[in-house]
Design a protein that fits this description.
The chain is mainly α. The chain has one domain. The protein has six helices and no strands. Helix 1 packs across helix 2 and helix 2 runs antiparallel to helix 6. It is globular. About 12% of the residues have low confidence.
Amino acid sequence: MGDPISLIMAALVAGAAKTAGEAVSDGYKGLKDLIKRRLEEKQQPPFVQGMLDANKDQLEDQKNQNFLKEKLVAVSVHEDVEILNAAKALIESMKSSPKEPSSQRNFSNQIQAKNIALQQGDGTTANSTFN
């Protein structure tokens, strides 16, 4: 990750994963906003800016990365000190942020009732009859 454009691309791809805390999320949004502003100043079409909002899978696709990288280089994003600093800060915040798998969910329920039916899950069905 020696060259500036690779650093920016790594920050964008890693930030798109959104598996870390609020500081990382804020840093990712800040980086995207700076890049979008630069693209807008250079009159890039809206779909290029929209690529910054792609999900993790889309940004991990090599063709999409190459296209976005080409567009970012064309407007000299990699020469913008503010953008480079934001990308570095995002990478650093990810290193210091605790890792939490995106599939991990924490549930806490406290229920007090006489007759109750509780159902939890995706796409499940339950029928309950209380007498």
